[in-house]
Design goal:
- The chain has 350 residues and is α+β, with helices and mostly antiparallel strands.
- The chain has 3 domains: 2-170; 189-238, SH3 type barrels, CATH 2.30.30; 241-328, Alpha-Beta Plaits (2-Layer Sandwich).
- The protein is 59% helix and 14% strand.
- The protein has 12 helices and 8 strands.
- The strands form 2 sheets. A 5-stranded antiparallel beta sheet has the order 4-3-2-1-5. Strands 6-8-7 form a 3-stranded antiparallel beta sheet.
- The protein is elongated and about 130 Å long.
Length: 350
């Protein structure tokens, strides 16, 4: 590269460089006027850094070289002149790359690719991507300049490693939320309109963003949940269930012990013939517990509907039908009570 720089610092190199800049200007002008949307924008974006930046680096190095050679001022040696030229070239290329990256990130093609409906989430993601891109380009440009000025590669690696660790710690929460947003976008554990429960945070999903998800709680308040919560906690999505379960323990009196077998059979038969109960799922009706003041009958089945309101209506009708079966059999429901028995010794004394 030093040989090419020295050639550009000659009069012949001056002529070749000037013609190259004129050709680049004509090409960029043509692309800016006749290119498509992205082509014309990119041409307009790189025109100034290519022509202005490279022009300054080219002519400045030629002028410094002429001052050294022709006027014999000698205030800069040739290696220093080459370093100045390389620095100006690296600065121009960095300028052009930054402009190209910003143009691409803010283009309509990028907005279509990320597919975000919420404009605030879209702007937030694009700004974060823009900043990360700028930091990465500046770090690479800095490392290239350090190589140009003879800084050891070990020191450069240490600097880049430290900068990377610092950036990762500073953006840990942000990057975690955005990566979790990508996970939600591709895996789709829930969708807008679903009722979810995650880490005791429960509500209906209104929007899924790249940084946070907004749900509406059951008291109609908006709740903004960082997406990292969904990456570290189980997500319950009742909206994806196939059935709703009815499970109850019905307490009968100890006096009804001889009747509970007939009651369980009649209730089981009733559920097996109920039109709103899914017969392909488990149906259980059994005497299953000796309690302190009652004998308990377990009722376990699933409704066909998953709509909460309809499920409540079906459950209520089944409970009332079970109550009718219990009462028709001559049994009754138990309640917490304490029975006191008089001591036999006291009866004898009386």
């Amino acid at each position: 590269m030093s040989y090419h720089l020295q050639f550009l610092q000659t009069n012949t190199g001056l002529l070749v460089g000037t013609l190259a800049l004129i050709g680049a200007w004509l090409l960029l002008q043509f692309l800016g006027r006749h290119g498509r949307n992205m082509g014309s924008r990119l041409a307009a974006t790189v025109r100034r850094p290519v022509l202005f930046g490279l022009g300054i680096s080219f002519y400045a190095s030629w002028i410094i070289h002429q001052l050294n050679e022709r006027l014999e001022l000698g205030f800069l040696a040739q290696p220093e002149v080459n370093k100045i030229s390389k620095t100006l070239v690296i600065a121009s290329i960095t300028w052009a790359v930054l402009n190209i990256g910003q143009t691409v990130l803010k283009s309509a093609s990028m907005r279509r690719w990320i597919q975000i409906e919420d404009q605030q989430d879209e702007s937030m993601l694009i700004n974060v991507m823009s900043r990360l891109f700028t930091i990465a380009v500046l770090m690479i440009a800095t490392a290239t300049l350090m190589v140009t000025f003879g800084v050891p590669s070990g020191a450069i690696a240490t600097m880049l490693g430290g900068a990377g660790i610092g950036i990762s710690f500073a953006t840990q929460q942000i990057s975690q939320n955005f990566l979790s947003g990508f996970m939600l976008f591709f895996n789709r554990p829930f969708r807008e309109g679903d009722w979810i429960n995650a880490d005791s945070l429960e509500g209906t999903v209104e929007s899924i963003g790249w940084y946070y998800t907004r749900i509406r709680t059951f008291d109609r308040r908006p709740l903004y949940i960082p997406n990292s919560v969904f990456a570290t906690n189980p997500i319950e999505n009742p909206g994806e269930m196939y059935n709703r379960r009815i499970r109850a323990n019905i307490s009968l009196r100890y006096e009804d012990l001889g009747k509970i077998d007939g009651i369980t059979k009649e209730v089981r038969t009733h559920l097996q013939q109920h039109p709103d109960i899914d017969q392909s799922q488990t149906i259980l009706v059994n005497f299953n517990e000796w309690d302190s003041s009652s004998i308990n009958m377990m009722v376990y089945c699933f409704t066909k509907t998953t709509v909460w309101k309809d499920w409540l209506d079906i459950q209520q009708s089944i409970f009332l039908e079970i109550a009718g079966i219990v009462q028709r059999s001559g049994a009754d429901f138990a309640f917490d009570c304490m029975t006191l028995y008089q001591s036999p010794d006291k009866d004898a004394k009386a």
